[in-house]
Amino acid sequence: MAIFNQAAEANNQTQTHRGNMILLDEYAAKDVFLTGDLHGNAENFHAIVERADLEHNPGRHLVFQEICHGGEPYPHGGGCRSHQVLEAVAEMKVRYPQRVHHIMSNHELAELTGYPIQKSRQLLNMSFAWGLRYCYGRRAEEVRLAMLGYLESCPLAVRIGDNLFFSHSIPEGLDQKNLPFDDTIFYRSLDPCSDFLRDGAVYRLVWGRDYRQENADRFASRLGVDILVCGHEPCLEGFKFPNSRQAILDCCGPTACCMLVPTYPKLELWNYRTFVFPLHRKRN
Fold this sequence. Notes:
Elements: H1 2-12, E1 17-18, E2 21-24, E3 31-37, H2 42-52, E4 60-65, H3 82-95, E5 100-103, H4 106-113, E6 118-119, E7 122-123, H5 124-136, H6 140-152, E8 157-160, E9 164-167, H7 201-207, H8 213-223, E10 227-230, E11 239-243, E12 246-249, E13 257-262, E14 276-278
Parallel strand pairs: 2-8, 3-4, 4-5, 9-10, 10-12
Antiparallel strand pairs: 1-2, 3-13, 6-7, 8-9, 11-12, 13-14
């Protein structure tokens, strides 16, 4: 419980936190290690920490997303143990309070709001709750409340330099007049009773699956960036480029991929794809 409270405080005290975004430029960071959805994969989490090597790269920042729901379950139907990886991410935030960031995803938002997610005929929220109970027993609810406080403090996105925006997903239908999007969520106080619920601005940000070129172009134009990096979508190869300006990263399987992007010089649209790399090094 204490680690979630400490991590929430670290989120609130992050010096590069502006509104609901982390702003990283050449003065704040040398480079940024971007990751995809983890979904409780402890092996890939440890590989990310090893590859990022923050201890020996003092100018590097590390960004996580989508930790909850997945990974190896507890034995005998004890439920999902992805909370262990979530706790490990919180510990990283406390250890490197200014250089580790965890952005909001749809599965974390689902835990915050109690929004049910079903996969493979299993209710993931219920399995997650069982895992907390299996691990913490009578203290499970106390731990859960601390966890929710941490999740609510997480930023929505990271902006790198003038031209790259990292968020879990992007809203759908931005090029359609009947689907306006309130992008003030990046700058103002959030209202859980409207922004977090279905069709609210935060909900639309983290649940969107519109990968059309027109949609990406409109979102990038509204934010004044060239490059969008997201998660949310399963990728067989660990990454995907659904349009000319958007990359999708997936870190929950054996083909996990990440990005290591510099804050200076400016990352150009034409070559941003070259910064994607496999998490696991090939063995000879």
